[in-house]
Amino acid sequence: MATVGKNILDNLTTGMYSDSKVIYREYIQNACDQIDLAKKEGILTQDEGEVEIFIDSKKRYISIRDNATGSRSSVFVEDLGDIANSNKQIGENKGFRGIGRLCGLAYCKTLKFTTSYLGEDVASVMICDAQKMRAMLVEAKKYTLDEIWSAIVKFETHTANKSEHFFEVEMIDINKENTDLLDTKKVCEYLSFIAPVAYKNTFILRKQIYDFADKICYRIDEYTVKINGKQIFKEYTTRLKEQSGNNLKNYDEISRLEFKDFYDKEGNLLAWMWVGLSRFEKQIPKVNQMRGLRLRSANIQLGNDDVLNDLFKEPRGNYYFVGEVFAVSKALIPNSQRNYFNENEVRVTFEDELRTYFYDVLHKLYYDANRIKNAYKRQEDYINKANELKKKSEENDFVDEKARQSLQIDVENAKKAAEEACKQLSKFDYIDGNSPLFEVHKSIGKKFNSEALKKKVESIEPAEISDDQKKKTYITTSMSKLSRSERKLVSKILTIITDIAPKEVAEQIIEKIKEEMR
Question: Is this structure's pTM higher than 0.90?
């Protein structure tokens, strides 16, 4: 028989995860599997299962406890003591490798498991000296897996109430370098998208998601998870925010959800997704934790918000969207780190189907949205320039004839651009009402008040040239304090300012000069 060395234990604990917070995901995942079993066996009703997390930052202590089946005392040592020898089934259970419970060994001094099965008066306990394990792993001496396991693990039993049924994981004396595990706010934010929990009831579009899931006969696994008594929900919202000074302000809104299901060549459902439709003003800023399409298996998020980036035509495309992709096929098997799926033919088909949809629909969606917005902006630009020409013409507010002619040319060019924009927008008037672009076009048009904007463009008339304008009166004409030669000098200065300074800055400087010289 081959000898299994200590490095395998290192790989399964300290070397397995890049983010220490995954311990919560792993233990919640195990708890949810047992809650499912408890419901199946009639120990719990449909709404009774709970996972309660308790964090004490002062004592550097974490407890994760469920009220599911617990473990029978007769099989406790085998179930907890064995490594990578789980009885769970691939495709049926959320966890199935039998290694997730080891993850806590990397982050505390003592890892403790306590459980009791309904009807038994025994609580079984397994205590792991995690600090000793890590010390043995870095020693120069060769240890076998069995030698380390025997040195760090001990079992105990205590008296328990026969009516109790639970499983509790305790992490005692969290490592100083893993203090982030004790940050309740960060843990809540992490689990609000990682954990298999319900959508927050303030997310008004959530009913559409449940309705679509029912339509395709898919059950979204949802569980009650609490941290220090506060229940965790998926923190989705219809509002998109951006940083404005020290505050956050709304800049866009999700008006509707679009749904898509993906099948293989035999017609088997591989996955389905929902995606939020907004005006696609810009890439969604990082202050929106929900940004990006998330990948979920058994309603547990795989990887981070970037896991599907490579399936977009351009990786940044993912961050124009909010949504979730739910894996359905049992052949889509999460890898050991749960940041994606194992390689197989079904995964290739899954990627091909998503890539096609992301290229043909989603990529085109935010590009077309940008074209629509730019068309409306060109109309606004024409209105603004025409109004500027009219105002300056009426007030003799030009620096010189060159400035007048320059603005007139700008207005003519803006008019041509606005006319072309009207033609482009007219093409979008015939979009299928069921198309996602129809909703996006409608939302953008509402922001720009498209009908009123169109009427303003059509009502613009050429600015009339007054008698004073024919005499070529300009800004300096009203500077009666100045001599003719001084006005010429000021005119040259104003021309230089107009030529080299940004428009807004030039206008501010000229306005100040006008005030001083009149």
Answer: no
